[in-house]
Amino acid sequence: MALTLLFLLMLSWTLHSSSHAVTVRPPRHPSTISVDGTTPPGVGVPLDAFVSFSIEFSSFPDFAGNSSNPNTFSNNLLNNLGNLTGSKPIVRVGGNTQDYAIFNSSLLDLATVGIFDPEISPDYPTTLTFGPKYFESYHTFPDVKFVHGYNLGRNSSAARNALIESVSYACKALRDGRLLYWELGNEPDLYSTSAQGAVRPPNWNERWYVRQWLHWTGEIREAMEGPCPNLATPEKYKYYAPSFANTDATLNPVVTWREGINRDNDIAIISSHNYINGADEPGVTLQGTLMNHSSNVASIALQLNESRLLSGLPYKLNPDLPFILGETNSLYNQGRPGLSNTFGAALWGVDFNLWCATNNIQRVHMHQGTNYRYQAWQPIDTNKVAKGTKAPYYGSIAVASFLGDIVTATPSITNLPLPDEQESAYAAYVDGKLDRIIVINMMEYNATAGNRYINHYPRPIEQYRFQLPEGCHGEAGVQRLMANGSDAITGVTFDGYSYNWELDNGMPVLLHNITRGETVTVSEGGKMSIDVPRSSAVIVELKHGNRPQGLS
Ligand SMILES: *[C@@H]1O[C@H](CO)[C@@H](O)[C@H](O)[C@H]1NC(C)=O
Ligand SMILES: *[C@@H]1O[C@H](CO)[C@@H](O)[C@H](O)[C@H]1NC(C)=O
Ligand SMILES: *[C@@H]1O[C@H](CO)[C@@H](O)[C@H](O)[C@H]1NC(C)=O
Ligand SMILES: *[C@@H]1O[C@H](CO)[C@@H](O)[C@H](O)[C@H]1NC(C)=O
Ligand SMILES: *[C@@H]1O[C@H](CO)[C@@H](O)[C@H](O)[C@H]1NC(C)=O
Ligand SMILES: *[C@@H]1O[C@H](CO)[C@@H](O)[C@H](O)[C@H]1NC(C)=O
Ligand SMILES: *[C@@H]1O[C@H](CO)[C@@H](O)[C@H](O)[C@H]1NC(C)=O
Ligand SMILES: *[C@@H]1O[C@H](CO)[C@@H](O)[C@H](O)[C@H]1NC(C)=O
Ligand SMILES: *[C@@H]1O[C@H](CO)[C@@H](O)[C@H](O)[C@H]1NC(C)=O
């Protein structure tokens, strides 16, 4: 029975691929995808440095290095993104270990001393001391602005004194243009329920949180006045907050606003966290959980409610404050191997980020730490993971390329609805006109995985037909985000370039075995058809002389 089925399956693949090496499918959706020529209503507008990172507090010295050994590989990877979007990514230094980190000014020889408790997490230290040397790491990425995460979790008087003592070191390291904003506390909504150990009693609530947040932001500001008076002014002293995990309803961000968290007017950006699902949750798969537009839509729905309530209608609590994701990635608990570290996760990241951009989540900090499965890059060699550029980094490169130079030509982003949850498309408008389109095909295609029958069929190609506005015609430039399959963890390229560490320390290297420089013809009537191999993405640039003319 099983053999017969297998035979039938193989036969059907053979038929599909009888005459060509690859099979171009007819479009699944017979109708063409219509694209407006001018900016439609309800678009999202990204902030500069939309493509940003969050680096685990305990891993920051690994990622950034120190004054005598700056991590030039990390800096090159940040430069690549900065070159595409007009400003380098913002680095938020925080995460779970931000609330474990205790400053000790007598720790002079090392940046950090961490003690791991594998029962709690094999991935990061749950007891963490850091000394003055830690702050050297803020000096190794030229032109990067940082968000430094202060500890709110540890509540002993020794920990509270250490927090205040750390302030002068932090502000001196970050003055001279390196500071974006501060943060106090990581996911304080989980303090009474955290799987890594509760640091507040069960009756922890919004009122209690807000009182402590106001108290300690006040103390930090006072401690800054002496060493860094310029950063303690009302204009400069600002926070990312409240940085809630939102995984359960322990604390409600809207209630924290009603309780007066922004009483001192020192919140610059409303920051929320999101993970699509958990690394160890049953039923999580690459196709069903990550390579699934509906899953992104469902996951972000909570944030959209929050942003609507906090920075929009109906309450208009903060109509002028941007709403962002200050920490996010695929699967919490640092990701799952075979899912979070694959090319499929890179494609997930493109759809996830652009769905955020479409919905006015104006900046996205992709989280990472040393050895994490979902990391964009591993900054150093360890006995667990080799130093290198990882597949998810290429997702960030594709997002940055699609958004373009946000500083000088801010794009507006909109989703182009497609019928299947395993595909998505977006359009970018610049100066009110259609500028580029991206198609992300998330239909799983395995390059290397176990089943040899499943793997030995040619990669299907899906065809997408567009109706572009009248007047839009000529040759359009094509850039592809490509790898051998969704399960590939190496060999990823964007537009023929590799950013791999082993080639040129993370700087772009053009590979000669990858097709690039492709164009697609847009007909006089604005019709365009583009072939997209399964498990890949393509950007069509309409700006090479064929943007719609005469449209305003
Ligand atoms: C990218 O940015 C860095 C830092 O600004 C600069 O040194 C480098 O030349 C740029 N590279 C390209 C290709 O523009
Ligand atoms: C700080 O570090 C010093 C030197 O390692 C150590 O002697 C001291 O006990 C530490 N202080 C605290 C409060 O842990
Ligand atoms: C600076 O980084 C190098 C390389 O990782 C390391 O050997 C050295 O101990 C670091 N210095 C400090 C003060 O942490
Ligand atoms: C500090 O945290 C402990 C739980 O670890 C809790 O019992 C205590 O009430 C907390 N104190 C304050 C002031 O929040
Ligand atoms: C894709 O995600 C949606 C929303 O979470 C879910 O309902 C659907 O079952 C997922 N698709 C697959 C194939 O798992
Ligand atoms: C978002 O808000 C709507 C309307 O209040 C509600 O129906 C929906 O369940 C909310 N979604 C989430 C994910 O909280
Ligand atoms: C890809 O490989 C995974 C893991 O072996 C398997 O679960 C999945 O069904 C495969 N998908 C396809 C489309 O071959
Ligand atoms: C991708 O496939 C090509 C052609 O089969 C092969 O030569 C190459 O080694 C593969 N790359 C990786 C990283 O597996
Ligand atoms: C292209 O060349 C690179 C570098 O030589 C190699 O690692 C990669 O596997 C090749 N890719 C394909 C698809 O053949």
Largest sheet: 8 strands, parallel, barrel
- The domain count comes to 2
Q: If classified by CATH, what would the architecture of the largest domain be?
A: Alpha-Beta Barrel
Query: What do we call the CATH topology of the largest domain?
Result: TIM Barrel
| CATH uppermost class of the largest domain | Alpha Beta
| Radius of gyration (Å) | 24 Å
Please explain how this structure is put together.
- With 552 residues, the protein is an alpha/beta fold.
- The chain has two domains: 22-43 and 414-541, Golgi alpha-mannosidase II (Immunoglobulin-like); 51-407, TIM Barrel, CATH 3.20.20.
- 25% of the residues lie in helices and 24% in strands.
- The protein has twelve helices and 25 strands.
- Strands 2-3-7-8-9-10-11-12 form an eight-stranded parallel barrel, surrounded by five helices. Strands 15, 16, 17, 19, 20, 23 and 25 form a seven-stranded antiparallel beta sheet that branches. Strands 1-18-24 form a three-stranded mixed beta sheet, with no helix packed on it.
- Helix 9 (343-358) links the parallel strand 11 and strand 12.
- The longest helix is centred in the middle third of the chain and has 20 residues, at 206-225.
- Bound molecules: 2-acetamido-2-deoxy-beta-D-glucopyranose (9 copies).
List the helices and strands and how they pair.
Blueprint: H1 2-16, E1 33-34, E2 51-56, H2 60-64, H3 72-85, E3 91-94, E4 101-103, E5 112-115, E6 127-130, E7 146-150, H4 157-174, E8 179-184, H5 206-225, E9 239-244, H6 253-258, E10 267-278, H7 286-290, H8 293-311, E11 323-332, H9 343-358, E12 364-368, E13 377-378, E14 388-389, H10 391-403, E15 412-415, E16 423-430, E17 433-441, H11 452-455, E18 461-467, E19 474-482, E20 493-494, E21 497-498, H12 501-504, E22 509-510, E23 519-522, E24 527-533, E25 536-541
Parallel strand pairs: 1-18, 2-3, 2-12, 3-7, 4-6, 7-8, 8-9, 9-10, 10-11, 11-12
Antiparallel strand pairs: 5-6, 13-14, 15-16, 16-17, 17-25, 18-24, 19-20, 19-23, 19-25, 21-22
Helix pairs in contact: 3-10, 4-5, 8-9, 9-10
One 2-acetamido-2-deoxy-beta-D-glucopyranose (NAG) is lined by residues 104, 106-107, 158.
